Amino acid sequence: MVKKKTILVACGTAVATSTVVAKAIEEALEARGLYVNIRQCKAAEVPSLVADADLIVTTTPVSVDKDIPVIQTLAFLTGMGREEIIEQIVGYLQS
Amino acid sequence: MEALEKLLVKSAIVLNYPAEDAKDVVTELGRHLFEAGYVRDSFVQAALEREKTLPTGLPLLGGINAAIPHTDVEHVLKPGVAFATLPQPVTFQNMVLPEEEVPVRIVFLLALDEPKAQVGMLQEIAGVLQNPELIEDLVNANDCEDVIDIIRNRGLGQ
């Protein structure tokens, strides 16, 4: 069995934006039969949590010193470019 | 949009507010939330501080842009949403590109105490932001009842 991948979802305060983004990603991936661990955090917490992550999706700039993909996007809030971002996430998860 | 409708604070719906700037509209909405007992007196300052480093301006599809200022849970007494429309846009910085300016005419000031419990409301706000017709209707709303109607009747099934 393949180990579930972990997506770190970051925003400024981890109360509003990342809640929406995490839920939207979870639903979009589940609709494609993909199950992942999603962890929500503040942008400032990214450096301490990045070790366990396979992908970061963030709505605010983050600094990452690990070689993993970072998707910086408002697509899950504004709807603009949403499908492309989901495809991008799926692509990273399957690579 | 039941969750959003339930959390909208009627006394904190301010339409056609002639805001001088982003600080002005956040302060005005925050004052209403404070007077209605939703937030502590530290809330406005905390939301303004947060906006400086972690801005919340969102460029939207229809060209009428929004901002969703909010801050940490310790400044909140109970969950609620304040709402403003602005006849003239004020400048917020872009959430994802803080150096970029976003002219904003719709503001949702969010008082959140437990994000997981309020995910329904947050998704509904995202639903509003993603719907240019709804945003246009909101910007043209003339009274608080219009806003409630728009959110109640036109938010669903789109």
For the biggest sheet of chain B, the summary is: 5 strands, mixed
Q: How far apart lie the N and C ends of chain B? A: 11 Å
The percent of residues in helical segments of chain A reads 25-40%
**Neighbour order of strands in the largest sheet of chain A:** 2-1-3-4
Q: What is the molecular shape of chain B? A: globular
Structural class of chain B: alpha/beta
Write out key terms for the chains shown.
heterodimer; A: 95 residues; alpha/beta; 4-stranded parallel β-sheet; 38% helix; globular; B: 158 residues; 5-stranded mixed β-sheet; 5 strands; 23% strand
Verbal overview:
The complex is a heterodimer of chains A (95) and B (158). With 95 residues, chain A is of the alpha/beta class. Chain A has helices at residues 17-31, 46-49, 75-78, 82-94, and strands at 6-11, 37-42, 55-58, 70-72. Chain A has a four-stranded parallel sheet, with helices on one face. Chain A is globular, with a radius of gyration of 12 Å. Chain B is an alpha/beta fold and 158 residues long. In chain B, 38% of the residues lie in helices and 23% in strands. Chain B has helices at residues 2-7, 22-35, 43-53, 119-129, 132-139, 144-153; strands at residues 8-14, 57-58, 65-67, 80-93, 101-111. In chain B, strands 1-4-5-3-2 form a five-stranded mixed sheet. The model of chain B has no long low-confidence stretch (mean pLDDT 94). Classes of the chains: A alpha/beta (95), B alpha/beta (158).
Write the layout of secondary structure elements.
The complex is a heterodimer of chains A (95) and B (158).
Chain A: E1 6-11, H1 17-31, E2 37-42, H2 46-49, E3 55-58, E4 70-72, H3 75-78, H4 82-94
Chain B: H1 2-7, E1 8-14, H2 22-35, H3 43-53, E2 57-58, E3 65-67, E4 80-93, E5 101-111, H4 119-129, H5 132-139, H6 144-153
Parallel strand pairs in B: 1-4, 3-5
Antiparallel strand pairs in B: 2-3, 4-5
